[in-house]
Amino acid sequence: MNITKQTISRFLWLSTFLLLTALAGCSKNDSRSSQPVPTPSPAPDPVVLTPPTVVSSFPIDASIGVAINSTVTATFSEAVDAATVTASSFTVTGAAQAAVVGTVTLNSAGNVATFVPGSNFGATTAYTATITTAVTNIEGTALAADFVWTFTTSATADTTAPTVDSTDPLDGATAFALNRSVSANFSEELNPDTVNGTSFSLSDGTNAVDGIVTYSNKTATFNPDTDLLASTIYTATLSTAIADLASPANTLATVVWSFTTGESAAQGPAAVNLRTAGNFVILTKTGITNVHTSAITGNIGASPITAAAMDNVFCSEIVGTIYGSDAGYTGSGAITCFAGAAPDNTLVANAVLDMGTAYTDAAGRTTPDFTELHAGDISGQTLAPGLYKWGTGVLISTDVTLSGGANDVWIFQVAGDITQADGSSIVLAGGALAKNIFWQVGGGTGVAIGTTAHFAGIILAEKGITVNTGASVDGRLLSQTAVTLDQNAVTQPAP
């Protein structure tokens, strides 16, 4: 019996010891598990390498009638590595011919590569130009794919000197904003190497103005380093050093114009440069339909559709000229307002191209001052100068007021359509001018201006523009498709 008790006692003691040891172990484990566990650092976001692109070319893709002594250019979206722009990465080849021998250069200031052929191109020959993926940006990222475009030559050389189509400001302009750039639009593409601070200068009559000169798409811009002086006469000069892309080059005759500044800086973004599209109050690709009688002040045009697509706009309804892509306009039988000869065909075709460039400019503006304002319903609102952006359509049910000065600018980027209600108006206050208001509209329908409504500003629409019965427009109707009129007054804005 005693032996049994001792055995049991020892067993109980051993069991207790083991239990306490186990509990102590658990306590230590619990202590360790209660300590904070270091949080691993998040993996860095992957670096997104955006490849450069070719944003424009000369000649443009599918061009015909290109002068045989032309050079070929490609403009990149960003700075590229000059060492990668070579005769191997930029080539021109004629149909059933070996690659054209030529010299390739890069204008780093404008990101423009130029191919100068060693001799004239063949007459009436199709050529293919190629920028390969060997071209990289300065970070080493290559083009995503080869950029290829074609053109067909004429039988003649270009011996015509470039001219200036328009300037901003105009010669003799007054009250020019102190913080705006000075620009000139040319009749043809220029050699970008010839447009610089020496060939484009600005002076107050005593002192030269310091600034940066840039060139893109037939437009040279002088951007002063500081604001201009108030109430001062300035003179801009374009010299004979400016030349086109012919080889040998044709040079510009000296152009000089003057303007007087106002007292204040402009509010809002820089205005959209319409280039030659600004010579039209209505411009379309697929024609103009019209219910009589409308009253149109300014030139109208359509291209590439035949001029017959404007037949129901009569000469009696327009103070201006109807420009067509051919001689097809018949109207009411009176065609004295119509211009359809070859130079006129070229004029309206170029204006349509400039319309597309202006649309891209307006759509590409960044850092908006207002985003999704009032969820797209701006009815009854007063809007200050600035850049506005909507990912939807815009509704105007009651009067909208744009309040600002004569140099202030509004740009409205509208991803959807614009719908303006019957009888409503866009009211300009404080000296605001229709020429400084730009409506870029990307919707699948376009713009609908209601019956007896009044619209103000320049419409750049990817689709159609419909102006309903009795409505009036102070501005320009520039459509990538068609414009529909119904007994309307459409008046180009004052300069």
Structural overview:
The protein has 495 residues and is mainly beta. It folds into 3 domains: 54-153, Sandwich (Immunoglobulin-like); 164-261, Immunoglobulin-like (Sandwich); 275-491, no CATH class. It has helices spanning 2-33, 342-363, and strands at 54-58, 63-66, 72-76, 90-94, 102-107, 112-117, 126-131, 147-153, 164-168, 173-176, 182-186, 200-203, 211-216, 219-224, 233-238, 255-261, 280-284, 288-291, 295-297, 299-302, 318-319, 322-324, 338-339, 370-371, 382-383, 386-390, 394-396, 400-403, 410-414, 418-420, 426-429, 437-441, 446-449, 454-461, 464-467, 472-479, 483-486, 489-491. The strands form 7 sheets. Strands 17, 19, 20, 21, 22, 23, 24, 26, 29, 32, 34, 36 and 38 form a 13-stranded parallel sheet that branches. Strands 18-37-35-33-30-27 form a 6-stranded parallel sheet, with no helix packed on it. The longest helix has 32 residues, at 2-33. This is SbsA Ig-like domain-containing protein.
